[in-house]
């Protein structure tokens, strides 16, 4: 290896590596703790000192997906012996399962609203980004800034009139309302990001296509879209993650029918007191998909989080 | 792949119409492409904003449908700006904003600097460090309350382990002096990677040739750091600060889950206070004025800052 | 108003038909807080589903976000809930803003008589304006703040002897709040079975209503009044009377000297956890927890005792909890919802409700000769229900609650200012609310 002034020495690398790895371990400790707590039993989860080694239990997951009631003697008799393994886990806690919990529904709401708003956002965003990238749109800079500025407003402040408007239109606590809202919030991100991606595609490709007799639509559809596919995919994932994580609007504008998981997970409680293993189980199932997406996205992360302002 | 849906549409349409679609001028296409986005943003952002401004001059309350609404002029604004409680929330927000930014810039820059040493496996560790910022702040914030529990919480236990204090002797969320730091710590944990990523991009944008030239001039490493690295990364860093500043000015989810604004009012950030006024007390007119004041503050501060940022970039 | 027409149509249909079964099977949603009694209600409601053919869905929200979410739902005119077991303080807003259906005609048509229910629950949960025969709910769940204590610890000879030596009286159920404080301080920091235990778990929660529901138990008994009994909304000298100040100082002293470290944001759930895990000798909590305590493997089965909120210098009162069940005016399944209330009001259903752990408010149930002995806490429940007082139930209740939470938490937990300043501030806040409301 030839000497270079910018290449760090071996020792420096070691020290840098140790420090970074040390930080990384500290930073993932809370996440590991969430995942671990999901597999603890109730008493283990609140043990003092905190238990690092414990006997794994599915109590948290069973509690997450079921509603239970504290069983009286005659109820236990009436119910007979437990029929399934999860019945058994509930019985071990002195409870009887009364039905499925709402977690599944809320998770599904997150999926519907997340994917619905992302799809709509990509449809509108790609078109707008293409137009901003390729055509002379009057007041282009102002419009672009306007689009960006919509993201600066505190969600609580925006929620006041949205609440009134949705109430008038009957959109409160509906999937459609939340999809439209998240689409609007995410449009700024998708337009800005996609414009950057489309800007990078040489105009010559389209010009060639136009000369070959393609219409503008066809050139957009057949030439630009495939070229921008990676950009569109990573933008879509960013939109999805935002919609997935959003809390403020969800807590204010939904109550049951369209409630997503983030406002729901903190409210998971047991038959008495907070059921931390169940909360942790719910959080784990909710967070792990995002971690997977983060790994997929790592090449485009920077661009996504800065609205395309910084590109690698 | 010869038949795309658009081809089919074009074939299926009668000749004049097809010609018209084909012949659409770029200008009309531009409008067709941009209009839905602008329309949706107008409907979901601008229209509500105008409505908010209008409401801010009234005493309207959502939970009193049967009461007559009166115009109160600037009274809402006057009440807010002269209310010491509102200023207290601004102070809490400022404390939160300043300290999160300071810590995140310091740690984020340091991490980026270290990662830029390109040790083996740095990509993997970078990805791991990035995890917290991609996760739902509400869900994670909720779990931090668990980590902060006296005695049984991991955070207290670790601190106690290293300092020898009794893990039950302090409560990060319950203590008036510690709670403002509890939210700073959680936010720093979550968002340091954001600053780190941007700094890393800044560091990687510096061409090697500049360092090589400095090396020829026999500039010390220390000097190189202050005269090359820092100025070159500064615009990036300032951009990161802008984003974090706006985001943390809006901060709601993480803190509301962590402390709910307590104890007392010590961590009641402006957004949390606004939420109480708007959606618990339902003082709609009053909170609309509050919201307008926040808009103006964010836009005002952000535009001053962007001007400064542009100056730095020009240098 | 459309809903009103719908409503009267529903009522007249019920009167005309006399039958409770409607033609179609509906999907009803009942909204309540997520807690033990709600699980019991699910169990109880299976009988209704079998009888009526309707399906019951439940939307349960934890207490700390219950008011937020449900009032938001009502104010947005949402149709999520057909039946609402709303908190007692919402009744004014529910009635005046048209969220709840007025039930007088329905009660008359179905021979449901409010005189059959515990009077305090009728006033507390069903009437608006208070003390007038206008009903917007049927008392569903009687609840009141009371105390739970570790009888097994109290009975240990060495502990009892040490207490007697120190205080010159026997360790037992306290007769006054002062005595309660002594006991809590006595246990604070004590080693029992190798672990450090603390005195009492009390309500200190900031975000919703916690600390208010706790501190009032001290305030009332030291002489706090919500208003001049002679002149409504006259607060000065009643909210911040000398007695009220003493009561608030008492609560702070209790918090400072006799509660577990870190208990700065505790409400029902945290108190239960602390008590069940053996951290505290006493806990303040609503009566709903008692069936759970009795059944608990650690502290149940006779290890725990129960007593009503002890007296103070100005009398003996306890904070009212509990809820009535109402029909939501925005529901389009109101007749099926009314059917549910009719079913729920039946004496045999109410008796079963008590058996499952629900505190029935029906006099036939609680006045049954066997009631007091049916559970170790039954007598305490009856005694407590006899001394209840409730927070404001005005439509502006949330506006009144929020400043109280803030002022009290600031003083008791954050230690800012004095008790006098806190209550003087509260008078100012409340006066402003009543001025805004046009009541002053």
Sequence-ordered SSE layout with sheet pairings:
The complex is a heterotrimer of chains A (312), B (315) and C (440).
Chain A: H1 10-37, H2 42-45, H3 59-65, E1 66-70, H4 73-79, H5 85-92, E2 95-100, H6 103-134, H7 140-149, H8 155-169, H9 175-199, H10 203-211, H11 216-227, H12 229-245, H13 248-253, H14 261-264, H15 276-297, H16 301-305
Helix pairs in contact in A: 1-15, 3-15, 6-9, 6-12, 7-9, 9-12, 10-11
Chain B: H1 5-12, H2 15-22, H3 26-55, H4 75-81, H5 84-115, H6 122-134, H7 137-147, H8 154-163, H9 179-204, H10 208-216, H11 221-249, H12 253-258, H13 270-279, H14 284-314
Helix pairs in contact in B: 1-2, 3-14, 5-9, 5-11, 6-9, 9-11, 11-14, 13-14
Chain C: H1 2-17, E1 27-33, H2 36-52, E2 55-61, H3 63-75, E3 83-87, H4 91-96, H5 104-109, H6 119-126, E4 138-141, E5 145-150, H7 151-154, H8 157-167, H9 177-187, E6 190-192, E7 195-201, H10 210-222, H11 242-258, H12 268-276, E8 280-286, H13 290-295, E9 304-308, E10 318-319, E11 323-327, H14 334-344, H15 347-355, H16 363-366, H17 371-374, H18 378-385, E12 388-389, H19 397-412, H20 419-436
Parallel strand pairs in C: 1-2, 1-3, 7-8, 10-12
Antiparallel strand pairs in C: 3-11, 4-11, 5-8, 5-9, 6-7
């Amino acid at each position: 290896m030839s000497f270079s002034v910018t290449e760090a020495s071996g020792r420096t690398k070691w020290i840098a590596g140790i420090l970074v790895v040390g930080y990384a371990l500290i930073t993932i400790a809370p996440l590991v703790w969430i995942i671990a707590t999901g597999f603890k039993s109730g008493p283990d989860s609140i043990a003092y000192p905190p238990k690092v080694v414990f006997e794994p239990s599915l109590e948290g997951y069973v509690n997450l997906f079921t509603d239970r009631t504290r069983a009286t003697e005659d109820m236990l008799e009436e119910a007979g012996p437990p029929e399934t393994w999860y019945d058994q886990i509930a019985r071990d806690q002195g409870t009887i399962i009364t039905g499925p919990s709402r977690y599944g529904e809320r998770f599904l709401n997150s999926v519907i609203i997340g994917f619905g708003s992302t799809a709509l956002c990509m449809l509108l965003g790609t078109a707008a980004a293409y137009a901003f990238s390729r055509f002379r749109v009057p007041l282009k800079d102002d419009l672009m800034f306007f689009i960006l500025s919509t993201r600066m407003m505190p969600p609580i402040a925006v929620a006041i009139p949205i609440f009134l408007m949705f109430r008038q239109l009957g959109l409160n606590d509906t999937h459609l309302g939340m999809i439209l809202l998240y689409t609007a919030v995410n449009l700024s991100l998708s337009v800005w990001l996609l414009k950057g991606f489309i800007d990078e595609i040489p105009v010559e490709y389209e010009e060639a296509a136009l000369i070959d007799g393609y219409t503008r639509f066809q050139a957009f559809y057949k030439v630009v879209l495939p070229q921008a596919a990676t950009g569109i995919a990573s933008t879509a994932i960013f939109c999805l993650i935002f919609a997935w994580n959003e809390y403020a609007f969800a807590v204010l504008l939904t109550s049951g029918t369209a409630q997503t998981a983030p406002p729901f997970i903190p409210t998971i409680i047991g038959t008495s007191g907070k059921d931390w293993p169940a909360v942790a189980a719910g959080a784990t199932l909710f967070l792990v998909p995002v971690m997977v997406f983060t790994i997929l996205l790592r090449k485009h992360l920077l661009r996504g989080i800065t609205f395309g302002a910084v590109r690698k | 792949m010869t038949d795309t849906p658009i081809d089919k549409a074009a074939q299926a349409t009668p000749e004049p119409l097809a010609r018209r679609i084909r012949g659409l001028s770029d200008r009309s296409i531009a409008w067709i492409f941009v209009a839905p986005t602008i329309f949706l943003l107008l409907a979901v952002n601008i229209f509500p904003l105008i409505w908010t401004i209008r409401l801010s001059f009234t005493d309207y309350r959502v939970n009193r449908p049967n009461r007559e609404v009166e115009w109160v002029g600037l009274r809402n604004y006057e009440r807010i700006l002269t209310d010491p409680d509102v200023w207290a929330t601004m102070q809490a927000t400022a404390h939160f904003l300043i300290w999160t930014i300071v810590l995140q810039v310091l740690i984020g820059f340091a991490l980026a600097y270290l990662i830029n040493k390109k040790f083996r496996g740095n990509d993997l560790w970078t990805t791991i460090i990035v995890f917290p910022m991609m996760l739902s702040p509400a869900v994670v914030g909720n779990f931090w309350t668990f980590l902060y529990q006296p005695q049984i919480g991991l955070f207290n236990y670790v601190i106690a382990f290293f300092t020898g204090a009794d893990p039950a002797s302090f409560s990060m969320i319950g203590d008036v002096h510690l709670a403002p730091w509890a939210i700073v710590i959680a936010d720093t944990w979550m968002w340091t990677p954001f600053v780190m990523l941007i700094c890393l991009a800044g560091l990687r944008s510096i061409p090697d040739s500049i360092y090589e030239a400095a090396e020829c001039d026999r500039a010390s490493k220390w000097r190189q750091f202050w005269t090359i690295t820092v100025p070159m990364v500064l615009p990036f860093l300032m951009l990161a600060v802008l984003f974090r500043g706006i985001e943390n000015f809006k901060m709601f989810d993480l803190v509301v889950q962590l402390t709910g604004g307590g104890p007392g009012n010590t961590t009641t950030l402006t957004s949390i206070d606004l939420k109480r006024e708007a959606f618990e007390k339902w003082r709609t007119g009053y909170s609309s004025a509050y919201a307008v004041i926040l808009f103006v503050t964010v836009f005002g501060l952000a535009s001053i800052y962007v001007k400064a940022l542009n100056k730095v970039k020009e240098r | 108003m459309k809903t009103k027409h719908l409503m009267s149509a529903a009522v007249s249909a019920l009167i005309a038909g006399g039958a409770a079964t409607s033609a179609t099977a509906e999907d009803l949603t009942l909204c309540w807080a997520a807690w033990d009694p709600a699980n019991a209600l699910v169990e109880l409601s299976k009988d209704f589903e079998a009888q009526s053919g309707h399906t019951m869905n439940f939307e349960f929200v934890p207490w700390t976000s219950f008011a937020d979410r449900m009032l938001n739902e009502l104010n947005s005119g949402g149709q999520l809930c057909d039946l609402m077991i709303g908190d007692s303080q919402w009744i004014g807003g529910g009635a005046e803003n048209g969220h709840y259906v007025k039930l007088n005609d329905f009660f008359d048509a179905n021979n449901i008589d409010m005189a059959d229910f515990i009077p305090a629950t009728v006033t507390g949960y069903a009437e608006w304006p208070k003390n007038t025969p206008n009903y917007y709910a049927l008392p569903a769940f009687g609840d009141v703040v009371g105390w739970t204590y570790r009888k097994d610890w109290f009975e240990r000879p060495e502990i009892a002897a040490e207490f007697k030596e120190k205080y010159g009286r026997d360790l037992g159920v306290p007769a006054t709040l002062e005595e309660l404080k002594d006991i809590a301080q006595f246990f604070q920091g004590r080693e029992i079975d190798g672990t450090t235990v603390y005195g009492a778990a009390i309500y200190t929660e900031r975000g919703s209503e916690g600390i208010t529901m706790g501190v009032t138990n001290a305030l009332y008994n030291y002489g706090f009044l919500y208003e001049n009994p002679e002149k409504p909304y006259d607060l000065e000298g009643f909210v911040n009377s000398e007695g009220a100040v003493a009561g608030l100082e008492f609560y702070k002293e209790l918090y400072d000297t006799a509660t577990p470290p870190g208990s700065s944001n505790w409400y029902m759930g945290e108190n239960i956890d602390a008590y069940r895990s053996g951290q505290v000798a006493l806990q303040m909590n609503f009566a709903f927890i008692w069936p759970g305590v009795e059944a608990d493997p650690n502290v149940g089965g006779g290890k725990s005792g129960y007593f009503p909120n002890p007296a103070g210098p100005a009398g003996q009162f306890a904070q009212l909890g509990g809820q009535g069940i109402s029909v939501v005016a925005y529901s389009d399944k109101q007749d099926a919802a009314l059917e549910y209330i009719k079913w729920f009001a039946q004496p045999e259903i109410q008796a079963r409700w008590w058996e499952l752990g629900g505190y029935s408010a029906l006099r036939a149930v609680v006045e049954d000769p066997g009631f007091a002995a049916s559970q170790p806490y039954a007598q305490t429940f009856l005694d407590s229900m006899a001394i209840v007082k409730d927070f404001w139930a005005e439509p502006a209740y949330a506006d009144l609650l929020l400043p109280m939470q803030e002022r009290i938490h600031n003083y008791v937990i954050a230690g800012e200012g004095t008790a006098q300043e806190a209550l003087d501030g509260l008078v100012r806040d409340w006066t402003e609310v009543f001025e805004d409301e046009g009541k002053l």
